[in-house]
Amino acid sequence: MKKLMMTAAVAALAIVATGFSASAAEKLKIGFIYLGPVGDLGWTYMHEVGRQAMVKELGDKIETTYLENVSEGPDSERSIEQLARTGHQLIFTTSFGYMDPTLKVAKKYPKIKFEHATGFKRAPNLGTYSGKFYEGRYIQGVIAGKMSKTGTLGYIASFPIPEVISGINATILGAQTTNPNIKLKVIWVNTWFDPGKEADAAKALADQGVDVIMQHTDSPAAMQVAAQRGIYAFGQDSDMIKFGPKTQLTAIVNNWGPYYIRAAKAALDGTWKAEDTWDGLKEKMVLMAPYTNMPDDVKALAQKTEAAIIAGTLHPFKCPVLGQDGKAVECKGGANLDAGQILGMNFYVKGVDDKFPGK
Amino acid sequence: MGLLEAIIISVIAASTPLLLAAAGELVVERSGVLNLGTEGMMIMGAACGFAGAYFTGSTLIGALCGIAAGAALSLVFAALTLGLAVNQVAAGLALTILGVGLSGLIGAGFVGERITPAPHLYLPVLTGIPVVGKILFGQDGFVYFSVALVVAIWWFLYRTRAGLILRAVGDSHTSAHALGYPVLKIRLLAVLFGGGCAGLGGAFLPLAYTPFFIPGMTAGRGWIALALVVFSSWLPGRLAAGAYLFGAVTILQLHAQAFGLGIPSQLMTALPYLATVIVLVLISRARGSAGSVAPASLGIVFVPDR
Fold this sequence. Notes:
CATH architecture of chain B: Orthogonal Bundle
CATH class of chain B: Mainly Alpha
Oligomer: heterodimer
CATH superfamily of the largest domain in chain A: Response regulator
Shape of chain A: globular
Largest sheet of chain A: 7 strands, mixed
Number of domains of chain B: 1
Largest sheet of chain B: none
Number of strands of chain A: 13
CATH architecture of the largest domain in chain A: 3-Layer(aba) Sandwich
């Protein structure tokens, strides 16, 4: 029922969007498909901030449309196709679950350029882009290991996809460098966005002795619960310091603007190619919010870790990486796990206090 | 605070918005009207409730704004289905889409703003009793109101003449009409009551549960409330039991995960819905024997012939 309603809403939105963009013919029309509402303060909000940065930079050379609240899976195909049919020449689909629908539409419209965030399927007219968020997760782990008094960290996870798994693993690997006996409890809420449920998960973790909470969901609800309970938390996607002035240690900030500007410029001057872009702290696609609410030595350690990752002297998945069974994982990238292993990560490292989903 | 106590408090908080919205919908459906717009009315209640509390600093005024918003939206539904005899399912779905969109528009300016959450009751001595103290005497006003509401609805439906008439309208609107009861007027009042309850349930979210507003923050709770009414087989007592059961499953599965019990979280998430399906099957099998089933005129449009 909810799906049906969402689809109807999307269709209605799409019609509005068409009406909006029918006027200008000369400009490059760029479309965005958003997972949540633009006001979610998390994932979708940061893509919207990126889109706005693009509009600000390129002004009247481009015209942008976005469709928000597009649910993942087969239903999204209609929305993507709607953009393709209405003259959009560059289309960004901004969530993992749009992968197959994007590929399908891209094959149908070979002249239109597609860019899919966080996926791994590409075509001559379909590029992918993502951030190395695990770099930020590793730094958060380093901080959390120092800041936790109970030695137990809590992680609110959305769906068991490689991106989320690699975040969990990077966190514990970072935390083990500052507290070898650190424990990590994981709760899967099976949603990207449900403030009530995210808050419930945060409460459950706090009730079970967790004193530092991280999340891979999109609302600031967990941050608020942490603030009420007087424990620490990390912001997700955007700087959430407003929701926990005395609670947020730092936040991973998704900085899509520069990439969107680059892609739009390439499309404008005809140099656009379907590529696989995977940028991190070094390229500033991933930023860390200011390090707050921690002693100076922890702050210095965090900054040192960040600098080392940027300089390339430290890799969060430096070999040997031990699996949950204690055996070293095959090291395909020489000194560290290679991109394929990280982007397709399907195992927990040693120290995660959870059974791997589906195994 | 012990773990059990903490879990029970979380369960009550998670159940309250469902109970408020479902209690209202139960009365609506008892009068023979199926309003599928609960989700839309809830999210409108959330947006307007937050706005009210943000400008006045008062949870009470926020809650009243939420009730008013839910009732106002339900008035649209009433005008369509009672006034113009439009199909109730279609009108209800339209109401949800309208509510979700409109609340996003109203709430856009409040995203990122914060308010003080609803105060919790505090009685010296009583609140301090171990284990049960905080559960019985340390909740916010919404929780006490929701319990009182269910009791009041039960009393109204089964112990008052007005309640008997409302049920009669829901079971056979033509007979009620023939007896001279104002069917449409009774249904209008029921729909407005349901809208107010849904609005209050929605307002609970930004006023007490997670004190901020974000578009779409009801995240499907309106649909769960609708399922709960069916689950309860239209009985207030079972409704309360169902709402707390639903809340309990939601919270316990989170704790089970944090304990590392290794039960697949997807299965746990699906459990309450599975329970609803099973109850539906049981209801259909029990039909004909004793026990309450759906109001006979549920969802059927009534046009007075004279």
